[in-house]
Amino acid sequence: MIQMSQIAITHITSKDTRYQGVWDLREEVLRRPLGMSLKNEDLSKDHEDVIFIAEEEDKVIGCLMLHDTGNGIMQFRQMAVYDEWQGKGIGRQLMLAAEQYCVQQGYSSITLHARSVAVGFYKGLGYAVDGDEFAEVGIPHYIMNKKLS
Asked: Residue 46 sits in which domain range?
């Protein structure tokens, strides 16, 4: 577990009671603004994933899902931080903790689908765009990758 003042970064599975907080966060930050709901989606990957969370006073304020795609590649997906916590380094800390986990587990690289507005954030962490813009959940995204050392 990594401590950031009163922010704790740790990982859980979908069986953890804090998973409901992850679901609520993703619903509010990632789906509701698009007029969508997780209730209408296949969430089966959630039960296979390692889920990194940022908590403050027992409230999930940030999350990042890690999905093993095989061949030593981990996919980061569904990264979200509540609006009032954005710009405070929470996303960066989630990414760094998840990357460290991937290195410890022997993964060789990470892939993710970045919303176009977040490409700069991921570039700042060493990710590179791989290919052309594409639409996912109705908005522009880019595939981004990073080799792990």
From this structure: 2-108
- Would you give the distance in Å from CA 75 to the centre of its chain? 9
- Number of domain units in the chain: 1
User: Is residue 137, in this structure, part of any structural domain at all?
Assistant: no
The pLDDT value given to residue 3:
43
pTM score: 0.93
DSSP labels, 16-45: STTHHHHHHHHIIIIIGGGT--GGGS--GG
Cα separation, 131 vs 71, whole angstroms: 20
pLDDT at 4 over 70: no
Determine the Cα–Cα distance for residues 146 and 108; give it in Å rounded to an integer: 9
pLDDT tens digits for range 57-103: 999 999 999 999 999 999 999 999 999 999 999 999 999 999 999 99
53 near 21, Cβ under 8 Å?
yes
CATH code for position 15: 3.40.630.30
